[in-house]
Design a protein that fits this description.
Chain lengths: 330, 517
Amino acid sequence: MQIDLRTVSIKPLRHTYGHIERRFGDKPASRYQEGTYDLQPTHNFQYRPTWDPDREIFDASRTRLKMRDWYAFRDPRQYYYGTWTLARARQQETAESNFDFVESRNLASLLSPELLTLALDLLLPLRHVAWGGSMNNTAICAYGYGTAITQPCMYHAMDHLAIAQYLTRIGLLLGDAAALSSAKEHWLCAADWQALRRLVEDSFVVQDWFELYVAQNLVLDGLLYPLFYKVLVEDELSMRGGTAIAMLTQFMTEWYAESAKWVDAQVKVAVAESPGNAALVSDWIAGWQARAVAALAPMAERALGERADAVMDDLAQQFAARLAKLGVNA
Amino acid sequence: MDMQVPKKKLSLKERYTLMTRDLAWDTSYQPKEKVYPYAGYEGIKIHDWDKWEDPFRLTMDAYWKYQSEKERKLYAIIDAYSQSNGHLGVTDARYLNAIKLFLTGVTPLEYMAHRGFAHVGRQFPGAGARVACMMQAIDEMRHAQTQIHSLSNYNKYYNGFHDFPHMYDRVWYLSVPKSFFEDAMTAGPFEFVVSIGFSFEYVLTNLLFVPFVSGAAYNGDMGTMTFGFSAQSDEARHMTLGLECIKFILEQDPANLPIVQRWIDKWTWRGVRLLSIVAAMMDYMLPKRVMSWKEAWEIYFEENGGALFKDLARYGIRMPDCAAQIAKEKDHLSHQVWATFYNYGAATDFHTWLPDAEEMDWLAQKYPDTFDKYYRPRFEFWREQADKGNRFYNKTLPMLCQTCQIPTVFTEPDDPTKICYRETTYKGDKYHFCSDHCQHIFENEPEKYVQAWLPVNQIYQGNCFDDGVDPGAPGFDPLAAVLEHCRMVHGRDNLDFEGSEDQRNFEEWRGMSKRNA
């Protein structure tokens, strides 16, 4: 039985802010809506940036992509600061208990030395890749247009930072500080990591923020996360007795599944907007995808030997299927 | 089972280094100058980013844990406050106008800080500094959103809150905060952190924070009070970042000193001019007052700020020159600004009023040297005229200062009976200022400030009407067209508090909540 509790009821003059009402009508609005739509200033900018004097502070021409309404980029997760923080805090609790579980039972000691070496070799240089992802998403937040897409990019940047930090903890738990520094050495010098490092460094100087979004969030992460965290860690290492490692990367797996839905929604909207956008996006994908595949192949080979080619083919097929769903002509 | 060799325990500092700046590397496929293209042009010399001392050591796991606890509590209180019609518990509906000022003039700055810190969080070549700036970027988003969410309930019942982002880009007095922040964001990354991180967050933020948040607490506004208190621990982090930035820059190279000193001089003055709106709010808009503007200034700037500048003296930093003029103005500022708002009350999205007899006595007591002598007679005269039905709304647009964009209403530092005007000619055009300091700021960077979008000038040029409006049409009322363009409803959002819809509704609803109908 439900009992209505009585409170003094007053008829409100309006249900939400004017800019929200013009988009969604005069009805109670969600916190995501009120905390997102039309927040970025758009008019009457006072001065040109001394660091970019040809443009306004917020300027839609920092990408070649064109949108009639930049707030078409809706986040299906409806993250504003509060919901994002709460969601991540919950995932963090799980991650924390996974780390505790592995540590308290000393599961690292059950891993064979070869497996341990392989795991550290594969995972620890990814600290730097995640750091690059964090930098790039910070840039998209800074130079992008419209809060609907810039806001989640800042959260995404912090998520990447967190992943770099979880990887650091994995290094410290399964190895030590020296393991981190030798992985950094690999990142900087070992031949099989250089294509990836070059790709990441090249992404740092991409000027078009939506191209950067496509290169980082769709292409690089869209290939790297399934390869490393699904195929190499969850399937391959687990099969070889490394389930403990999969426990330590659970955050990454879940985070990728969740955030890929957001990335898909953004790309879908951009592509559906116009044939011009669709062509741009597919050009960007084509350029970055070939490089990303080539950069990731040595790691697949390191872990899988001659099975690597088949796995990379699978990966490419899955990625193509994903793109097809987004309306991208690959 | 094998004996585990105990691992060397890392110190907190070593561990934090591995979790942050050790993630970064020196790029070799792309030159540093292309990866961090804005790091050099301001002339700040940094020799060793490794000397950066992390102002706080917060990894993301801990950040999420602390912040989610704070968010949970904050939103529970906001919900409870809204559900119980907490707005009817504020001292007096006049108070609502203070938070209208906050939502339209301060919340958009939080948003700008979010984007600005993302920019420097990408551009500093030092990874330690970048991580701290990125954290501030999300904190600032938190502040913007918690403010919007807390004040959302007021918007449902009262006028003037309804179109804050639209107004921020267009309403005349809001160009004061807008130009302040855009000035900082269009500067280089080092000036940005000195202006916002140091001058604003560290030196001046208490003067913004204490009046509004304590004002809210004093006036029964639990919603605003709660987001204010909840933001406090974030602000503490931002202040330590601001201080670390300034110390780091100064320690890196002695040649940085004159540049930094010029920025501190500039941004202290820009900040104080911005805060003049807060001064008026404190002395005139809070039904239950916390302290006077002058008292707040003495505690938070003269005492606390004085101690800080003593501490920075070892780097060669001195108190900004403008401090002398500010000391003279503290007896006058709030009265002059409130008088201006009262004059232009037909063009504000909040209501204005004259202080009543009891309030004037309080002002006289807080400002014994100036209030009775210079301001009481003015307010009493206006009261007399209003009572006779001659409430005068000024419809002539005032001249604005080219730098701070406040109407040139302030008086000469040494003569409170004479308006202070300064002017200069640049490339054949004449520019006007409210003060020597605003003039100097202009003269240091004329190419920047000639771009200023001054609302008054823009209105006269016909740039502040809706599309399709014909200023040549017979009977065209330019001010009505400007209000419409700003989405202000004449007679509802503006004019005197006395007789306003806000006043009537508050009375009626409060009656409903206290009595049986």
